[in-house]
Amino acid sequence: MSAWLDDNADTFGFRQASVSVIAPGPNDNAVILEINYAQLLAKANELQAQVDLESDTEDASVSVTTRSTTRVKTRAYGAYAPSPSKERRTPPRFDNHNRQRSREQSRAIRRLVRNDSMNHGIAKVKGITRRIHKNATPIPTTFEPNLGGRKTMYTGPKDPKVDVSAGSQPSLAFLLEDLSFQLLKWNGRRPVSVLDCERRILVHLAGRPEDFDDVVAELNRVFAEAEVKLKVPANKFRHRRGAYKTVSFGASLGGGQIEPMNLKLGDDNERVVEDLMSNWAVTRLIGFVNSAFAAVHPQLHAKYNNVLNQLLKHHPKLRRCFKNSVFGACSINVGRVFTARHHDHLNLVTGMCSITAGGDFDYTQGGHLVLWDLQLVIEFPPGSTIMIPSALLEHSNLTIANGETRWSFTQYSAAGLFRWFDNGFKSDGKIFEEFKEKKQIAELAAFKERRSKLWEEGLNLIGTL
After folding, report:
1. DSSP E strand boundaries for 286-384
2. Which of 3, 169, 205, 420 is most buried, judged by most C-beta within 10 A?
3. What are the residues whose beta carbons fall under 8 Å from the beta carbon of 449, sequence distance 6 or more?
4. Cα–Cα distances in Å, from 385 out to 129, 212, 217, 284?
5. Is residue 402 a contact partner of residue 362, using CB atoms and an 8 Å limit?
6. Interhelix angle for 298-314 vs 96-119, to 10°?
7. Which regions of 79-207 does DSSP assign to beta strands (E)?
């Protein structure tokens, strides 16, 4: 090493210039030491003597010692001197074309990774997220899910028409005192799981992340803006769930549709929904809900993911609501939102529906989620999320006071999408027609036997504690 320094001293200006040595300092901070040529040459001789001594005992030690030689930078030239233990190499040519191509390849790889994870039902759930939701406070009940004598294995019970006016809705006092319902006080942050008789997580109070205050404030702003911009015909303002503005978007099948299709919004509402979907706070909310769903119900989440992706491949015109969500459709509900008793009967009966509430209201006095089958009243603070099987459980909300506002955002998948997928992308009518034409009696019996097992299979996909 000393010989190399002496031979190259004039070339690199060692004799005429001071030399800076980059070395580790306290707290892992780099420091620059000023060393003249004589000092550097003496240190090189010392290192060379060590190398010669160690070479007699172990060749590997020589390799390690020479490669760890201090890197030297000359102040005169502003370049690193080549290490004596390595040959000088010409750096590979990397022009602007190669740089741009590398960037495009990196983007393509990231897209493939994202698409591959979604296509295989893999949700990127952080360990802490999984632990938070799986360690939720359990609320055991004796409730046993049942079909209520119905033959369908996909949809829930259809409700009769009820009065949806505010004056006809029960009060908190009536539910607690007259009907002896239980009140579940909740701060809207820490997760809580309501269990059925088999310890299945029937209702999950997902709450919200600790750093969600800014997100909730932005959500309140964009939903208040949507309330003003959304155009809903007067004859559709009052519906079977309540009296408030509501628009739905995404993929659906049911209610007279003969195949999966996108829900229609109209040009004006289309722009409003697109602005809302692209909002950063809404994207954060969607990601949180998707992670919570995957953490609590991993098998059910995988089923939702697989069915939606296969439908999108088979029907290219269908649109996904959000890239980071497995739900097929969403609904925006704005105004003074509260709902009458109902089932969302067109959703998958053993599936989950995500409900996020927001606005400006006193959650201890109104806006509660009422679960009639469980005889449970749950405080529902603004900015929090609850997941329920909305087609299975009859539910409603308590009214809020005059002058208060409450919006809700729901995510769900229609039962018809799962039936269409299970039938090989055909309707029930088409399936039975084919069996009849081909006189496939055995195949028809096997088909009906398969259908009879869907209820138990669906319950087994729900997460447990």
Report:
1. 329-334, 353-360, 369-371, 376-378
2. 205
3. none
4. 15, 12, 15, 13
5. no
6. 120
7. 79-80, 137-140, 182-184, 192-195, 201-207
Smallest Cα–Cα separation from 293: which of 123, 141, 458? 123
E strands, 56-127, are 72-74, 79-80
Q: d(Cα 423, Cα 426) in Å, to the nearest integer? A: 5
DSSP structural state of residue 224: H
**HSE toward the beta carbon, residue 60, CA cutoff 13 A:** 0
Which residues on adjacent β-strands are paired with residue 309?
none
- CA 365 to CA 460: how far, in whole Å? 37
The alpha carbon of residue 400 and the mean position of all alpha carbons in its chain are separated, in whole angstroms, by: 30
- C-alpha span between 63 and 455 (Å, rounded): 67
Which of 356, 230, 351, 349 has its CA nearest to residue 288?
356
Residue 334 and residue 245 in contact, taking contact as beta carbons nearer than 8 Å? yes
Q: Between the CA atoms of 271, 381, 300 and 346, what dihedral angle is there, to the nearest 10 degrees?
A: -60
Residue 57's pLDDT band (cuts 50, 70, 90): very low
> Is residue 77 over pLDDT 80?
no
Residue 76 has pLDDT above 70, yes or no: no
Residue type, 298: P
Q: Helices (DSSP H) in 230-279: which residue ranges?
A: 267-277
Nearest to 432 by CA among 451, 440, 260: 440
Residue 120 DSSP symbol: T
Sign of CA dihedral 316, 352, 455, 343: negative
Contacts of 255 (CB under 8 A, 6+ apart): 346
- The tens digit of pLDDT for each residue in 167-220 reads 788 999 999 999 999 999 999 999 999 999 999 999 999 999 988 999 999 999
Whether 397 and 339 have beta carbons less than 8 Å apart is answered as: yes
Please give the helix or strand (H or E) that residue 288 lies within, else none: helix 280-296
Residue type, 209: P
